[in-house]
Amino acid sequence: MTTADPQEFFALFAAERRPDPYPHYRRWRESRPVAALADRMFAVSGLAEATQVLRDPAFGHPEPEYLDPADRLPDQPVDESGRVVRAFLSLNPPDHTRLRRLVAKAFTPRMVEQLAPRIEEITASLIDRAPAEFDLMTALAKPLPVEVIAELLGVPLDDRERFAEWSHAMARALDPQFLQPPGTLEPAVRARQSFVGYFRSLASERRRAPGDDLLSALVAVSDAGDVLTEGELLVTLTLLLIAGHETTTNLIGNGVLALLRGPDGLKPLGTDGEHAARVVEEVLRYDSPAQLTARTALRDTTLGGLAVPAGSQLIILIGAANRDPATGPAPETFDPAREPGRHLAFGQGIHFCLGAPLARLEARIAFRELARRRPDLTQSGPPEWNPTTTLRGLSALPVTSGG
């Protein structure tokens, strides 16, 4: 049986390794694509094994907890039986199927595509306003997804800065507890309270006066008479905020950094950004914005030749699996000309990211407009990384161009 010291596993995520954890991931994956860390805890880093966990119905999520009112966090949504209301991303069928179907009826591909002209307008404005020397994260990668998700939800312009603050605080709490520094949970709880309170009020307004936005669509959506409860609506909005903001910010920042570290800068995007879609897929594989996810064994099963008892927790190293040699030749190399291949950046199976088309669209437009408007962009200083692991991204990326 392949076993490993949990402390050796935790060391993969040490702060000093944050700028480039991938050599450490590679060594771990090559020796143990599946490893038992402790009783009923496994680490999964091989592509085939990670794909199996994400697609096999033997793996899923623990059932929602029943909480006594005295144990609930302030404003924590619960259903009428006292179960914690969770977003569909962390539910199993049939609850997952029902909620995802309802959300998908409101958050449609057509709605995403209709955003393209507005995303282009916002992106062009942000890039054109930036001086010759600027921080790419502050100037483009952070504000663009906030503007887009806020516009999608119909949030007033003056409230959008608060979005970024709430999202960042909640995203830091997504790391497993063994990776969270002290004091992480309290700001996340406060941010969630503020977010829930804000959208409870805004949803009430949309019920009285619907608009042409996703929030109005989610408030009104129904399927054979089934509708989202208030708690389900609020946790769905929380998911959309974090997934629609943090991951896309990281995708843009990680991608630009990878390009600028190459010999040709932004040139692989093409003079008119015509290769942006292909580059987006390579960034998703090479330096995925989402590095970790987790599943629970719902029954006794096997994985990579190991027995996995029911109730076991599995930590999936997406960043390691995406550089498995099974993804293609030279997986440790960033190759902007690589034809899109296999990666797990948006998951697999029934929990595949519903927001993937929007993230791809935003990143594609951001890369294309940079190629058009700042083709001579170069890195002018060392990048700074966020102190998070589950969501991997930059806090700062100094760049310069001819303006």
Core attributes:
403 residues, 3-stranded antiparallel β-sheet, globular
Mean model confidence by pLDDT: 90
Strand order of the largest sheet: 1-2-10-7-3
Number of strands: 14
- How much strand content do the residues show? 5-15%
Portion in helices? 40-55%
Shape: globular
Low-confidence stretches: none
Radius of gyration: 21 Å
What's the main sheet like? 5 strands, mixed
H/E topology pattern: HHEEHEHHHEHHHHHEEHHEEEEHHEEEE
Descriptive report:
It contains 15 helices and 14 strands. It has about 400 residues and is of the alpha+beta class. Strands 1-2-10-7-3 form a 5-stranded mixed sheet. Strand 5 (about 220-225) and strand 6 (about 225) form a beta hairpin. Helix 12 (about 230-260) runs parallel beside helix 15 (about 355-375). The chain is globular and about 60 Å long. The chain starts with 5 loop residues before the first helix and ends with a strand. The model has no long low-confidence stretch (mean pLDDT about 90).
Write the layout of secondary structure elements.
Layout: H1 6-10, H2 22-31, E1 34-38, E2 41-44, H3 47-55, E3 59-60, H4 95-106, H5 109-114, H6 116-129, E4 133-135, H7 136-141, H8 143-153, H9 160-172, H10 185-208, H11 214-220, E5 222-223, E6 226-227, H12 230-260, H13 276-286, E7 292-297, E8 301-303, E9 306-308, E10 313-317, H14 318-321, H15 356-373, E11 378-379, E12 384-385, E13 394-396, E14 398-400
Parallel strand pairs: 2-10
Antiparallel strand pairs: 1-2, 3-7, 4-14, 5-6, 7-10, 8-9, 11-14, 12-13
